[in-house]
Structures are given as C-alpha cells and as structure tokens.
Design brief:
The structure holds two protein chains of two kinds. Chain A is mainly α. In chain A, helix 4 crosses helix 6 and helix 10 crosses helix 11. The two termini of chain A are 30 Å apart. In chain A, 33% of the residues are buried. By secondary structure, chain B is an alpha+beta fold. Chain B contains ten helices and 29 strands. In chain B, strands 2, 5, 6, 7, 8, 9, 11, 12 and 21 form a nine-stranded antiparallel β-sheet that branches. In chain B, strands 14-16-19-18-17-15 form a six-stranded mixed β-sheet, covered by helices on one side. In chain B, helix 5 packs antiparallel against helix 7. The chains are: A mainly alpha, B alpha+beta. Strand 1 of chain A pairs parallel with strand 1 of chain B, so a sheet runs across the interface.
Chain lengths: 203, 578
C-alpha cells in the first residue's frame, strides 16, 4: 500500500498538475473570461493565458508524442490556432483550458493522420494497478500484457477517455470538458468501455 | 498483429525548465501577424479567377453608364473609397501639433493655447505588445474649430445612420496621439485622457444651450463612432472682430465701450457686496506632529526672529512674538533634499512668513548666507487635544456664520447677475437696432457673430485618434444638379469639392462631376470651392447661390480659379473668408 501511495505521488508530479489546479471555480472561470475578452480586442493581452496554459498543454501533447521538439511544434500550432480563432470563442460555463485541450487533441490527430504513424499513448506503472482495481481483476504480469493488447484495440475516442481518466488522473468533470460531452455521459461511456475491456480480458 | 498505438510506459516527462525553454509569446504574436497578412493575400488570389467575369461586368457597366446620365453618387463613392478616408486636399499644408512631454509615472495636466486642458493619468500608455511604457512619452495634440480647419484636415464630416447620410456640425474637434522615441504608442486598457476642449459656437438663446455628442473617427471602418454625450458648459460671450473699415464699426465701438463700462460697474458692485457681507473664514484644523519628519523649536535667546507683517497678524503675531520658544515646528515633506545639519548651525536669525494655515516659510540667515525651509506649526499631546476641542467649537460657529452669509448674499448675487444680464441684452439690442437703421448688408452677419459664445466641451478620450464634439444635421432639401466651369468655360470635374453654409460649423465634401447634387441652404449664405488637380482653389461665392432661380433643378456654377498661393494656411483662410 505504501508503495502505491508513493507511486501515485510520483505520477502526479510527472503529469505536472496538482489536484487543486485541476478544479476550476466559477469565479476563476469568469475572471478568465474577462482575460479572454481583453485578448479578443488585443492579441497582446493573451500573454497571461499563454503563460498559464503553456505548460499543461505542452505536457498533454508530450504524453501523446513522447518527443520534445515535436511537442513544441504542435504546442506552438495550438496557441497560434487559439489566437486565430479567439474571436469565435465565447464563454459557455467551462474553463478556457478545455477549449485549448480540444484544439490540442485536434492538432495531435492531424499530425498522426499526416505522418501515418501510430499515436503515442503514455501511461505509468501505477495506471495499470488503478485500471486493474477498477476492472476488479488480480494484478499479474500476464494480465498487464493482455490489458495492453486490449487498449491497443480501442477506438481513438474511447482510448482518449481512458487516457484522460486513468492515465492522467482527471476528474470526470474535467474529462467531460475536454471531450466536449456532459459529465454524466463521460461516466457512462467510460464504464461501458471498461465493461467491454473486461469482457475481452475474460475471453 | 498490427499495432494501432505506441504505448509508452513511464515516459520521461520534460522538466519545467525544458518546457519553459520552448515558451515564446512574442514569436507567437509575430506568427499571428504573418498568418494574418498571408490570409489577406490568400483572399486576393480568388479574385484573379473572377477577374474575367468582373471585366465583362465592367464593360457592361460602362456601356450602361454611357447611355445614362452621369451617376454622381456612384462615382463619388468610388472616388473616395479608393483614397484614404482622411484626405487632406492641399498637399503642402502639414497639420501643426502641439507637443507635450509626459512623465509616464506621473501623468499631468496640460494646457493648450485655446484654454483647453488635457488631464493625462499615470501609467496610461502601452506598446503594441501590451507592455506598459515607462519613462517619457510625447503627446501630439491639435484642435480644429471651423470650416477651414475641417477642410484642410481632410476629415469627412458625414455620419450614416439608418441609410440617411447626415452632415456632422462640430463644436470642436481634436486629434491626439502619443509617441515614444518616434514610435506610436497606445492607450492602456481602462485608461483615458480627460479632455476639456474650449471652443466658440453659435448659441442664439442662452437659455436653450445646444446639445452635442462625442464621436471618434474609426479610419479602418471609415466611419464616425458614437461615444458619449458632450458635457457642454457655456463660458462667455465672444465679441466679434470688426475692423475700422466696416460700415458698422462706429456703432460696434460704442457698443463695445458700453459693455466694458458695464463690466467695470458690475465688478465694483460685486466687490461692494463682498465687503458688505464678508465671507466667514474657515478655521484651521490643528496639526499633530508626525513621527516621520524632524521637529524642532526656536530658542529666541540671542537669535532674532523677524515676523512677516503681512501674513502674521493679530493673536498669532502676539503669540509668536512672546512665546515662540513654546511652539513646535516640523520640517515639511515639501522640502526637497532637506539636510538635518542645517538645524545644528548657529544662525544669526530667521525670517518667518506664513504661507497658509499652519504652514510657514522660515529663512535662516547668517551674513550673506540664507537657507529657506518650509515648516509646519504642530502640536503634541494635551496641547493638540485642547486645540482640537477649540477647533471643533470654531467649526460650529463657522458653519452657522456661513449659512447666514449664504442666506444673505446668495439672492443678492442672483439679483446682481440678472440686472447686468438684462442691461447687456439691452445694449446688444440697441446696437443691432442701430445697424438695422443704417440698412447695412452685414446686419445678419453681425447678429450672428454676436451670438457666438465660448464653451467648454468635456469628454473622455479612451483612445488616440480624432475626436469630434458634434451633432448630425439632416440633409437639406433644396438641391440642384450642378456642373462646374472655370472663367474660360472649361469644365471642372473629377476633383474634390467643398460646400459650406454660414449657419453650420461644418463642411460638406463631394466629387465634382457633370451632374453633382448640391444641397444648399436658401436661408443662409453658401460658399463652394473645388481643389483643382494643380492644387488651386476654384471658388463660387455666395452671390451665385442667391442668383439660382427658385425651383431650378440644374445649375452651372462658374468658378473663379484663384491664383494665390495655397501653401499657407493663412492665405487659404483669406481666400475662403465669407
């Protein structure tokens, strides 16, 4: 148990986000909306948002590329697109970061479509334990290998939910905001995916 | 089996420093600029594909236009659309700006020669990247007040609203911008410059002050944008300039002298009223010694203190003459570079002068050496408490006395002002009656110029550019289709023209064609001019407008091409005077 706790801590550090940073208050979102409005009238005022979100977006992309320079290129495209489309952004009760994550997801997908390479999926050792706990299975090396094969067969959209929830330890609320679905839908879809994975593991 | 994903277990995540190394917001902004300019270029390319279709359309249009009477509005719109929105007509006349150096950390208040004032707040400027400017910036400011200013500025005075094209009549216009090292800077968000623009406008009835709005010119969108209501205050009457050659000069001079006498009499009566009812003096609140400034006392033993006779009087003089050693003085923070050692020096004496309640100037002297210093008379402990109790009592007495004073004086002052206003009106009527009796042509002009008043337009400039205090005036109904020829009968066309009406402080810009609609005011004097391609002014004087037959739908204006130099504003003013 002690070992797992240490791993979890290490995982949070690796992901680069503390839990407190993940939850965004309504006041914070409204404050941020004011910053976005200022940037809509003058792109130079996007700087605070850029400084705030560069690191988490960079890490989000890195987990899907595992290459620093490539990550930097895609990250630069993400913020350029964000600035180009900023005037079309309007506040809909979700954090501004969710919009950036969606742009990042699209840019990553576009990169892999163009390069015809397999997309990188990053996970920590601890994620195996979490998923195996969630699947109510016994953690063995054989099961881990099976789990990897099952993950490899998931559709992109399904894998993204698993990644966000289990590999990046995000709340369902945040998973929903990034995926652009409701929180309830995120929960239902995630557990359906887990059910399907469980069936495949038992076969 | 074919893999769909590359699963990486325990990836080596980059450190914060590694991530930060890739951050470069300025480069991102540059990328944005580049992408925007490329996207503009991209939009031009498809036009090429439509060029052949467009060319065919143009041919058809030309055929259509040739078979039709000339369409001025189409030509005019095209002519001005192809040129900068602000289009100074005389190339050799550069606008003159007054320049003010502003310390960004402090801001400041700046006066213009017209009496206008700019209040610039601290930290009000930023660069294109949104970074606050520090140090000093230079504000460039100019004012435009009359039709000649508007004409020379090239600023269009039109305002489109609900498909109606109004002319903007101005109560004063400004252009303002700021530079740092020759580079334009922007106003920081949330900051503004308070503008108090003094101008002279026509106020026929002082009881019905005119109302104006504030508009800012958006040169990119090519339109005036409404900002606010003009906070307009009437200041004074303005007497016109009437030279000795004017037929009404004698009557005007008599009127002017009578007004001056009346003003002098009014001043005397006001002073008499003030001495009859002296305004109670506000008691001064005692000052407590602060801990932050050095305090000292004056030992009069072997040291002469000379009290200023004009500022130190009565009980205070008595106190300071007999008990100055009991008074505590505090060095005022107003002293710059105060050296405490100056208090240790053996001086021969000092002169003491009162500046305001509790504030004094002491000048120590010894031989030829003098050291002035601003000091405050302060109290400590019980003495301060006692003085405060006395002050509270004096304050109550003062408030009672002030109420009595206001009750007695207020109505008297109102009566006095009304009396003089009536007498001024009588003088003006007498003068105008004398002009009317002489049956002078200039009667209307004089009557109009006598209704000019100095006003103060107040507004907040939330950005740099051109700001106008004005009001939209509906287009005039009386209109003719005009053609313009010079003295030799040569047609003048495809050049900008300008029309003014003496009762409106504006200028209407148009394109001279073979078929130009000219809407003019039949109840006023109108003047029109074209700026020829060789930068000369071709003028139509008011008489020609008066000669247009009533109900005429067409008119050929014969213009006088002036040979005078158009390189100087004064010369142009002389040409366009009417």
């Amino acid at each position: 148990m002690l070992s797992k706790l240490q791993l979890s801590r290490s995982h949070i550090k690796n992901v680069g986000m503390s839990m407190s940073k993940k939850s965004v208050s309504v006041e914070h979102m409204q404050q941020e909306w004011l910053e976005v409005q200022a940037a809509q009238s003058n792109p130079a005022r996007f700087r605070p948002l850029y400084n705030r979100y560069y690191d988490p977006i960079f890490r989000f992309i890195f987990r899907r590329t595992n290459e620093e320079e490539l990550t930097a290129d895609i990250c630069s495209q993400v913020f350029l697109k964000a600035l180009q489309r900023l005037n079309s952004y309007s506040f809909k009760g979700v954090p501004f970061s969710a919009w950036l994550y969606r742009i990042a997801s699209n840019e990553i997908a576009q990169h892999y479509r163009a390069s015809q390479k397999n997309r990188v999926v990053s996970m920590e050792e601890s994620s195996f334990s979490d998923m195996i706990d969630e699947l109510d299975e016994r953690d063995t090396e054989g099961l881990r290998q099976q789990l990897l094969q099952t993950l490899d067969q998931l559709r992109e959209g399904d894998l993204q939910l698993i990644e966000l929830r289990f590999f990046e330890q995000r709340s369902f609320k945040e998973v929903a905001e990034i995926a652009g679905i409701t929180e309830n839908n995120a929960k239902v879809r995630t557990y359906r995916i887990l059910e399907r994975m469980k069936k495949k593991l038992s076969n | 089996m074919k893999k769909n994903y590359k699963i990486v277990i325990n990836p080596q995540m980059p450190s914060e420093e590694q991530v930060a190394r890739h951050m470069d917001f300025d480069a991102l902004l540059e990328q944005l600029d580049t992408s925007q300019s490329e996207s503009k270029k991209g939009r031009i390319r498809p036009l090429y594909y439509y060029a052949s279709a467009a060319a065919a359309a143009v041919v058809l249009l030309v055929v259509f236009l040739v078979s039709q009477p000339e369409n001025n509005s189409l030509q005019s719109a095209q002519y001005f659309a192809e040129r900068p929105y602000v289009l100074p007509p005389i190339q050799d006349i550069e606008p003159e700006f007054k320049k003010y150096k502003v310390s960004v950390n402090q801001g400041g208040v700046y006066e213009y020669e017209s009496g206008s004032r700019l209040v610039v707040p601290a930290a009000a400027f930023m660069d294109d990247r949104g970074k606050l400017i520090e140090g000093e910036v230079e504000i460039h400011y100019r004012e435009m007040h009359d039709y000649v200013d508007f004409f020379l500025s090239g600023i269009p005075m039109v305002y489109d609203s609900a498909n109606v094209r109004y002319t903007l009549e101005s109560a004063g216009m400004i252009e303002i911008y700021a530079e740092k090292n020759g580079q334009r800077v922007n106003m920081a968000p949330g900051k503004h410059i308070d503008v108090s623009l003094v101008s002279q406008i026509d106020v026929p009835n002082i009881n019905v002050p005119p109302s104006y709005n504030i508009y800012q010119l958006d040169t990119a969108a090519r339109e005036w944008v409404y900002q606010d209501i003009d906070q307009l205050a009437i200041l004074d009457d303005v007497l016109p300039q009437v030279d000795e050659a004017h037929p009404a000069y004698s009557a005007f001079d008599t009127y002017k002298q009578a007004l001056a006498q009346l003003e002098a009499q009014k001043k005397i009566e006001n002073e008499a009223l003030n001495s009859r009812f002296p305004q109670p003096l506000t008691p001064a609140r005692p000052q407590k010694a602060t801990d932050s400034q050095p305090t000292f006392s004056i030992d009069p033993d072997g040291f002469s203190v000379l009290l200023d006779e004009a500022s130190i009087v009565g009980k205070e003089r008595q106190l300071l003459s007999t008990q100055i050693d009991n008074v505590i003085w505090e060095v005022s923070p107003k002293n710059i570079d105060f050296d405490t050692r100056s208090l240790q020096v053996e001086w021969e004496g000092a002169r003491l002068k009162k500046l305001q309640a509790w504030e004094y100037e002491i000048t120590y002297f010894s031989g030829d050496t003098e050291v002035p210093m601003i000091i405050n008379r302060v109290l400590t402990g019980d003495l301060f408490s006692q003085a405060m109790a006395q002050y509270e009592e004096e304050l109550k007495q003062y408030q009672t006395a002030l109420a009595e004073y206001e009750a007695a004086v207020k109505q008297e002052k109102i009566n006095l002002a009304q009396k003089y206003q009536t007498q001024q009106s009588q003088l003006k009527e007498t003068f105008l009656a004398a002009v009317a009796a002489a049956d002078l042509e200039e009667e209307d002009d004089l009557a109009q110029s006598l209704s000019k008043r100095k006003v103060r337009n107040q507004f907040r400039a939330t950005g740099f550019g051109i700001w106008n205090c004005d009001r939209p005036v509906a287009p005039l109904e009386q209109s003719v289709k005009a053609k313009f020829v010079d003295q030799d009968g040569q047609l003048l066309r495809d050049v900008p023209g300008y029309l003014v009406d003496k009762t409106r402080n504006t200028v209407v810009r148009f394109l001279a064609t073979r078929n130009t609609p000219i809407a003019y005011n039949t109840l006023s004097d109108n003047m029109l001019w074209l700026v020829t391609k060789d930068q000369k002014i071709a003028l139509v004087r008011p008489d020609q407008f008066k000669a247009i037959p009533e109900g005429a739908s067409k008119h050929i204006f014969e213009l006088e091409v002036l040979e005078a130099n158009t390189k100087e504003e004064q010369e142009i003013r002389r040409m366009l005077k009417f």
